[in-house]
TrEMBL record:
CDD domains tied to this protein: ABC_Carb_Monos_I (cd03216)
Domain of life: Bacteria
Sequence ranges assigned to domain ABC transporter in this UniProt record: 4-243
GO molecular function: ATP binding
PANTHER family referenced in this protein's UniProt entry, alphabetically: CARBOHYDRATE TRANSPORT ATP-BINDING PROTEIN MG119-RELATED (PTHR43790), SUGAR ABC TRANSPORTER ATP-BINDING PROTEIN (PTHR43790:SF8)
Protein's UniProt name: ATP-binding cassette domain-containing protein
Alphabetical list of Pfam families matching this protein: ABC_tran
InterPro entries linked: AAA+_ATPase, ABC_carbohydrate_import_ATPase, ABC_transporter-like_ATP-bd, ABC_transporter-like_CS, P-loop_NTPase
Keywords from the UniProt entry: ATP-binding, Nucleotide-binding
Amino acid sequence: MSRLKLTGISKNFGAIQALSSVTLDVAPGEVLGLMGDNGAGKSTLVKIIAGNFRPSSGQIMIDGAPVVFHKPRDAQTGGVEVVYQDLALCNNLTAASNVFLGREAMRKIGPLRLLDYPAMNRRASELFKVLKSETRARDVVRRMSGGQRQAVAIARTLLSEPKIVLMDEPTAAISVRQVAEVLDLIRRLRDRGISVILISHRMPDVFGVADRIAVLRRGELVASKATATSSPEEVTGLITGAIETA
């Protein structure tokens, strides 16, 4: 059974056809590399899966059941989490506080309800251990490397025990060593049976971690194939249109 199944997904913005009948499957514990040039429809597709946009037509299914997302909270409830390119972290807060941002643990002392920092630190530390990250719960985010920041953002997605994690350009503008850390984090998600959709322009990263590659061009899906049966040259041709389909 597919973890995520998109059937005939189209999206219009007035006269502009952003997506045209995209059909795509993602298996449990699979990393799908989603590639395409600027304007190919990657962001639109991701926002539909994440509940930011409603498709103009088509169907989304998760674990065999049709779903309709009216807003991002609906997608979260359905098991979809997103790590955006800007990570949406608060630099002045600790790693643990960022992991629990908007979902803070509380405790009662008499009539008062207070933030339960010890509980949040413990749980955040457990999540970093799961990811095998050296990030520490009490460290302040502004002092962290790019790889550690990604670990915080990914740990935040694990709080809700997601089925699908969408990652938007997670290796942009970080060092080679930090890229390796982030790719390891993606593998940890896969090892937990979580499906990952990796949106990236970086060919080596996609080929290094993705099980399958899907290519969008001008709103249409022109390829979806096992990484082992493709090559960077073929994907480049598919992105540019030098190769029509694969």
